[in-house]
Structures are given as C-alpha cells and as structure tokens.
Specification:
Number of helices: 3
CATH architecture: Roll
CATH topology: Pnp Oxidase, Chain A
Helix content: 10-25%
CATH superfamily: Electron Transport, Fmn-binding Protein, Chain A
Number of strands: 13
Oligomer: single chain
Strand content: 35-45%
Shape: globular
Structural class: mainly beta
Order of helices and strands: HEEEEEHEHEEEEEEE
Length: 177
C-alpha cells in the first residue's frame, strides 16, 4: 500500500501517434473518486471510466488499473465508495490520479476539501455531495489494460453539485450552465 506514481504525461492527453487515446480523450465525463479500506489500509483512485446501470439492483461499473492500490484494496474488502467530484476538488483528483505529489499521504486532512468519514464501504470525502456505496461482485473481468469491476449499489446520496468536475481531452472543464 501507499505506492505513489507520478505520471510523465496525462492518460487522456492527445497523442498524435495513438488515435485510440485521442478518441477516448474526447469522450469526457464527470470525474469520480473511488475509495476503499479503513485506517492504514485506505486506498483511492480518480476514475472517469465508469457508468451507472439502473435496475433492481442498480450497478456501478468501473474500469480500474489492476495494479492500483485501490483495485487491490477494493477487491480484498469487497466494497467501495464512488463519489462524484466537483470543480473545487480538482487538485484532489490530480493527487489521487498520481499526477500531483501528496506529501503526507492521499488521505491527510490538513488540506482544504479533504475531510474524511469512515463508512462501512470505505472512506467518504465529506465535501462530496453525491456518492454511492457499492459491494463488488467477485471475479472482475480483464478488459484491455484495465479490470472491469461491477459494484452493486447498496446506498446512494444525491446532493446539490455546485460545479461538477468534468474531464475532457486531458483537461478539467467547467460545464456551461
């Protein structure tokens, strides 16, 4: 646990020699933070490749880096918290994506917007107004360079989002009203 990777380039930035990467970067979407574990075994990852499937039960499907601390912790505990980030969380999103250093750890509470509450599914960012708690189904599928995890929704909170954190073409954007 606690592995920190600072990437040399952004995973969604345009690359002239990788048209599929450019295609993916143009999809865009709301940025989420997935967290799991408790105490020293907490882990988190910024995820923009996810979708929600309504039904009884509802599901949240996500593509995770199989070597990430989050994937390992979530699969070990079988639970995760999926919180939707807002514009004010953009530095936190960068840190959990491994793009900004986070001296003192990702879950430190001495920074603005970083107060955590432990839930039965994992750490919850208290400034996240909208979030879902999921129980992961066993045996995730390998899909490309990711694993596809299927989280059955056990709890959901929907609040007022001031300005959602949207990601497109390697940059955060403010949605237009």
């Amino acid at each position: 646990m606690g592995r920190v990777t600072i990437h040399h380039d952004h995973p969604f930035a345009d690359s002239e020699d990788d048209p599929l990467r450019r295609f993916r970067g143009r999809l865009g979407g709301t940025v989420s933070l997935w967290t799991a574990g408790a105490g020293q075994e907490r882990a988190g990852l910024t995820v923009s490749s996810f979708l929600v499937a309504r039904g009884e039960p509802a599901h949240v499907l996500g593509l995770l880096d199989p070597q990430s601390d989050l994937a390992q912790t979530a699969l070990a505990t079988g639970t995760a918290v999926v919180q939707l980030l807002e514009w004010r969380h953009r530095d936190l999103a960068e840190a959990f994506a491994g793009l900004l250093p986070s001296p003192g750890g990702l879950f430190r509470t001495d920074q603005p917007q970083t107060e955590w509450q432990q839930t039965e599914w994992g750490p919850l960012l208290t400034t996240a107004s909208t979030w879902a708690a999921v129980r992961l189904r066993p045996n995730p599928q390998e899909v490309g360079w990711s694993i596809l995890v299927d989280g059955v929704v056990e709890h959901v909170e929907v609040g007022e989002a001031d300005v959602p954190l949207v990601h497109r073409r390697g940059r955060y954007e403010r949605p237009q009203p």
